[in-house]
Structure formats: structure tokens, C-alpha cells
Amino acid sequence: MNPSPTPDLSLYQIALDNLTTPQSLKISPALLKSLVGATLDVMVEEKIPATLWVKFLPITNWQSELQGYLQQVGLLQAMYLCHCIGDESAEVATIIGEAREVDESYPLFPIPLAAGSQLRRELFLLVLSDQFSSLIVASQLPQTEPADPGQSQSFQVVCTFERRVIQRVLEGITSIIAVADSTPDELLERWGSRFPLHWVADERDLLTQVLVKQLQRIEEILHPSTVSQLVTDKTTLTSLPEDLRNKDELLKQVAQELKTPLTNMKTALSLLDSPQIKPTQRQRYMQLLNTECDRQNSLIAGLLDLVQVDQPQNLLITPVELADIIPGVVSTYQPLAQEKGIQIGYTIPSDLPPVSCLEAWLRQITINLLHNSLKFTSTGGQVRVLASLQGECIQLTFTDTGMGIAESEIPKIFDSFYRGRPIPGAEMGAGLGLTIVQQLLLRCGGSISVSSKVGKGSTFKLLLPIAPGSKES
Fold first, then answer.
1. Same domain assignment for residues 96 and 229
2. What does the DSSP assignment read for 184-222?
3. Which of 138, 225, 322, 378 sits at 20 to 30 Å (Cα–Cα) from 10?
4. Which residues pair with 394 in a beta bridge?
5. Which of 222, 221, 243, 245 is nearest to 232 (CA)?
6. What gap in Å lies between CA 160 and CA 456, rounded to an integer?
């Protein structure tokens, strides 16, 4: 049968929009492959029977990781190898062919998806089992045009164990399955039974093992010899902050920042092994693991963003309307603001000319500044974004009624890895958010200034150049 017209659905965006705390990573194909491998490693070691939903791209080379699980007799309940109509993959045919040579009844099924351009750039591994479920979904970032031969490919990735998010992504997949003769009857008739509805006691232990596996793989990928390759060409570091221009200083700071969360996680893991541990202690150590994992995730994401900012790129900076970016980002943070009891809003006059800045850069700048404002503002406070015309520039002002910044700290807040006063119960950031904001503004010819009073709040004023030829029109 022919599929009906389908909206340009994005499973990556569905996952990101449904996360409790929206956060994604920008990573390389190698790190993405290691994330997939870490999950499958634990499933093999613990002999976990599972149903897998998979969609991959040739660039990711996941076949070797998947084969390790497929070779375990009796574990695979079913594997649905998804592909967009018109993008039939030779790799999918190879996996099915090799498995059927061993056993013709092997439960591998090709699943065609009626999808638009967004899903064609996406890939995922979705694991469903009675013991634990997980989702890794990635969107391939477009390369610059014309493509630089030395430019590395990267992905925007969401990794989660939240069952609500996994359920939403499953619903998205089923909405675009193009039913064909090869579609398994059990998939059509018993879809609801494919998703386990209850948590079991051992799930947290399995999640911990996935974390340990990924830590081992990250340590290999982020070995100093590998990281140093990112910064050997000093000509690519001239716009980085002074403290990061020297590769040895960069590596030293990265190693120091990674050391603390890794040490805390290893300590918690060793304590969890104690047979005398009490339930309240176990809960506390699990919370520590969760916190430190978030901290490391934030650090790695921030570091990758910072290095990405300074990669030499031939970019055509086109005009962008503030009204096309700011309202959408603010609406994304509305639920968080409402949960914290904070009023959040924006004022963007309709007659403002467009600014000269990449859309992705302006969005990242807005996200980082709003995240900071909400983080340091208490219940009953306010966060506002205001745009106005200032000569040949547009002034974009972020104002909050938060805890404020001491005068002595203001000169340091744009330094890499600098963190202000800790907030009880708040996630520890990487100290790179404002560094990235400043670097992106410099790239588009803008600037940023700060005024603040302790106990009163802070104001960040950005100046963005008006796009050439826009003011007259």
C-alpha cells in the first residue's frame, strides 16, 4: 500500500521536547557509536532479552556493535530495522541476510517509514525489555556549503531512560510506519504489548552499569593524545579565550574538571556494592551518581561546543529576525519557569531590522542566557528579554531578579570553567556557557556587557550588528 502524506516528523525533536530537562549533546560519530556500544555491552553481559528498534546511517557503522548482541543465542526477541522509503540500506540487507543464513526464523524485520527530510538525517537505537528500556536518538547536523574536506561530521544527540519520552518516540515511529507485505503481523496486532509498563527493582543497577561502560569508552575517546589532536593547529585557536589558547593548559583544565565527577561516581559505585548498605544510603548514592553524570555530561557538551565554535569555517552569515528565534526559545523554557514560580516573557518590536548572525548561534546564545537567568532566580522572580534599536545595532537585553553577581566576580564570569556561587539543589554547570556566548557574539561582530547587584538581579546587554542593507528597508 502507498503511504499517506506525512508531516516532516523529527523523532529527535519529539525526544528533546519531552525530556524532563531538555538537553542534548553535540558529538562525533565515534562517540555516538561508543554510546550505542556501551548499552549493548551491558545487555550482553547481563543476558538481557530485548526488542530493538534501530535506524542507522552508513557513516555511523553500527553493524559491529549490533552483531555482538545478535550473536547471543536466545536474547533477541525482535529487531525492527527501520529505513525511510527510498533509502533502502545495503547494511540492513546484509544484517538480515547474515542472520537468516544461520537461522531462517531469526526475528529481524525491515520496517519502511513514510518520513520527510528531517527523519532521513536521523538515527536511533531504542531498547525495550522487562528489565530496562533506553533510547539514543541523533540528528545529523548539516555541513557547510561548500563542504570542507577536513570538516568533521557531528550529531545532535538525546540519550534517555525516561519511559515517558520513550513512549512518545514509539508513538512517533508507529505513526509513520508504511505498512507493507513484510510488516510483521504481531507488530500490527499486538503493538501495545511491545512496551513494558512497569519498573523493576534491578533497573537502577543496570543503568549504573551502562554509565560505567560509557565512562570507560569516554576515557578512551577523550584520552589526552586524542584531545590534543583537536588543538594542535594553533592558527585555529586565536579567537579562544587567552587561558585556552595553549593546548597544554586546555588539557590540564579539562582533566581537572573531569577528575572530580569521575572520582565521585567511582566512590558511589564502590559504596553501592556494600552488602550492609541501607535503602536510604542507596538512594543517596544513586542521586550522587545522577548528579555527577549530569555534571560530566554538561562539561563534555560545553567543551565540544567551545571547540566547535573555534573550528575554521567558511560560513555565510545571513540576516535573521529576532522574532523568528526569541519567542520559540522562551516558550521552551515556559514549563521550567512555571514549575519554579518565575515569570518569563519577552518584548520584540515587529519593526526591528534583522541582525547579522547565524540562526543557530543566536538560538544558542539565547538558550545559554535564559538558562543562567532561570537557574539563579528564585520563586516569585522575573526573567525578561527585551530588544531595541541602538544606532547601527540591535540591543538584546536579558534581565532577571535573581541572586545577582558580586562586583569582584563580574570580570571573571566569561572565563572558561568559571563558576559563581553554588546554589543548593541546583545542577553544577560546566562553567562554559557564558564563554560560548561571548565567543559566538565575537564571531558575528557583536558584544556583551553585564551589570548586576547582589540580591537584586543581573542584566546582560548584547549588541548585534544590523544585517547590511536591512535598515533602509
1. no
2. -HHHHH-GGGGS-----TTHHHHHHHHHHHHHHHHHHHT
3. 322
4. 389, 464
5. 245
6. 37
Residues 261 and 409 in one domain: no
Report the distance separating Cα 154 and Cα 308, nearest Å: 10
What lies within 8 Å, CB to CB, of 215 at 6+ separation is: 262, 265
Lowest-confidence pick of 10-24, 94-108, 155-169? 94-108
Q: Where are the beta strands (DSSP E) in 259-354?
A: 319-320, 343-347
**Cβ neighbours of residue 271 closer than 8 Å, sequence gap 6 or more:** 277, 281, 285
Are 332 and 456 contained in the same domain? Answer: yes
Asked if 132 and 166 sit in the same domain, the reply is yes
> How far is the C-alpha of 431 from the C-alpha of 372, rounded, in Å?
11
Nearest one of 419, 417, 410, 464 to 440, comparing CA atoms: 464
Tell me, yes or no, whether 2 lies in a domain.
no
**Is the distance from CB of 337 to CB of 345 less than 8 angstroms?**
no
CA distance 403 to 383: 12
From residue 121, give the alpha-carbon distance in Å to each of 58, 83, 118, 386: 11, 11, 6, 35
Whether residue 211 lies inside any domain: the answer is no
Type of residue at 1: M
What would the DSSP string read from start to end of 97-159?
HHHHHH-TT--EEEEEE---HHHHTEEEEEEE-SS--EEEEEEEPPPPSSPPTTPPP-EEEEE
Global pTM?
Answer: 0.47
Structural domain count of the chain = 3
69 shares its domain with 92: yes
Q: Is the peptide bond before 146 cis (omega within 30 degrees of 0)?
A: yes
Q: Which residues contact 366 (CB under 8 A, 6 or more apart)?
A: 325, 326, 329, 385
CATH number at residue 143: 3.30.870
Residues 59 and 139 in one domain: yes
**CA angle (348, 354, 359) in 5-degree steps:** 90
Say if residues 11 and 119 touch (Cβ distance below 8 Å): yes
The DSSP bridge partners found for residue 79 are: 52, 108
pLDDT in tens, 53-107: 999 876 667 777 787 788 777 888 888 888 887 766 666 666 776 666 656 677 8
Do residue 331 and residue 450 come from a single domain? yes
More confident position, 103 or 175:
175
Which H or E run includes 325? none
Domain-embedded: residue 4:
no
Residues 232 and 272 in one domain: yes
